[in-house]
Amino acid sequence: MRRSAAPGGLSAATTVAPWRDRWSLWRDRLLASPRFRQWAAGFPLTRWVAHRRAQSLFDLVAGFVYSQVLLACVQLRLFDHLADGPLTVSALQPRLGLDAAATLRLLQAAQALQLVEARHGGRWGLGPLGAVMAGDRAISAMVEHHGALYADLADPVALLRGQARDSHLAAFWPYATTSAPGQLGDADVGAYSELMSASQPLVAEQVLDAVDLRRFACLMDVGGGQGRFLIEAGRRAPSLALRLLDLPAVVERAQRQPEWQALGARASVHGADFLRQPLPGGADIVSLVRVVHDHDDEAAQALLRAVHAALPPEGRLLLAEPMADTPGAARMGDAYFGFYLLAMRSGRPRSAAQLAAMLQAAGFQAPHEHATRQPLQTRVLMALKPVANVPGARA
Ligand SMILES: C[S@@+](CC[C@H](N)C(=O)[O-])C[C@H]1O[C@@H](n2cnc3c(N)ncnc32)[C@H](O)[C@@H]1O
């Protein structure tokens, strides 16, 4: 990135101009006044803003309930039942295992959230959001796994104070807190590896539409899970050699997959703990896909340095993950990932500028951002390892 980069740590707070402070103070006093709010809700020029703001606030208050309605739909497989066409309450009720009143209550709640829709003849069909859910197993898997997150968020203040005792998410992602991730076994890594594999195709599509890998000879995907990203990269760049690096138990799972086996001699695996063992050389491009945000600053910086050491001069690092400063996705970055990673007890969301500063501190040139179609889901930075003392090449 060619704009100025903030440092990776806590000092990277946004600078706010003094006039904005004064304006915000005036606005906050106004909005706190019940008389002003009543006036604004009735006055024709401010009515729509007042209604929209009230709706946003209510959505914050009720967000957990909406999520639980969605969880009930997923657990009862409502979207699967409706995928072949609309059904009446009496046809649905035995499939859901609910009585008629509960079925109707769920359908009405789901309709309010655009998950289902009432159709002609007393039948119910998929709504615009339910249709997306029905076509995407990865979102359902994510919704079910959120049970662990919500259990951890039951006392958010204890979480912030570091006083929460158990962490369901830390148990789900055991590499985040153990001091010996290389010792984890198949039973420890299976659940998260499957969840990552289910959602990886969407991420791979975004990343590989943004970056053409055909000019490279060998791609090493560090923290590459069960190899889904490499499998798609290999499909798009048929002469690219593929190397998967992840924990020993994870690469063993990858090797058992028929799509991985079908890659034959062009694919290899390397089971290692990337925080405690050096990375092997030989690749001219290394990818870190949804990996850096899992780690606290010190570990993340050490990982970037290790990638730099493993690359030849003019080698590239491809870093892909959701980022904190994404326009239109601020909630996803600092609110969702901020608290998710707090509950997981490792890592934090970082802005593109913070990542750029960390990449430069690791020895890379300022990265270049490759635009993706859905930056909310993932953004892509490409960083060049310069030939020593020859600045100026672009990533
Ligand atoms: C959030 S997952 C992302 C997986 C994959 N890149 C994707 O996007 O689907 C993080 C991956 O990093 C791996 N990982 C975490 N810590 C590691 C370590 N110390 N050494 C090697 N791999 C590690 C995990 O096993 C996991 O597969």
Automatic annotation (TrEMBL):
<dbReference type="InterPro" id="IPR036390">
    <property type="entry name" value="WH_DNA-bd_sf"/>
</dbReference>
<dbReference type="InterPro" id="IPR036388">
    <property type="entry name" value="WH-like_DNA-bd_sf"/>
</dbReference>
<feature type="domain" description="O-methyltransferase C-terminal">
    <location>
        <begin position="150"/>
        <end position="365"/>
    </location>
</feature>
<keyword id="KW-0489">Methyltransferase</keyword>
<keyword id="KW-0808">Transferase</keyword>
<dbReference type="InterPro" id="IPR029063">
    <property type="entry name" value="SAM-dependent_MTases_sf"/>
</dbReference>
<keyword id="KW-0949">S-adenosyl-L-methionine</keyword>
<dbReference type="InterPro" id="IPR016461">
    <property type="entry name" value="COMT-like"/>
</dbReference>
<dbReference type="GO" id="GO:0032259">
    <property type="term" value="P:methylation"/>
</dbReference>
<dbReference type="Pfam" id="PF08100">
    <property type="entry name" value="Dimerisation"/>
</dbReference>
<dbReference type="Pfam" id="PF00891">
    <property type="entry name" value="Methyltransf_2"/>
</dbReference>
<dbReference type="InterPro" id="IPR001077">
    <property type="entry name" value="COMT_C"/>
</dbReference>
<dbReference type="GO" id="GO:0046983">
    <property type="term" value="F:protein dimerization activity"/>
</dbReference>
<dbReference type="GO" id="GO:0008171">
    <property type="term" value="F:O-methyltransferase activity"/>
</dbReference>
<dbReference type="InterPro" id="IPR012967">
    <property type="entry name" value="COMT_dimerisation"/>
</dbReference>
<protein>
    <submittedName>
        <fullName>Methyltransferase domain-containing protein</fullName>
    </submittedName>
</protein>
<feature type="domain" description="O-methyltransferase dimerisation">
    <location>
        <begin position="59"/>
        <end position="133"/>
    </location>
</feature>
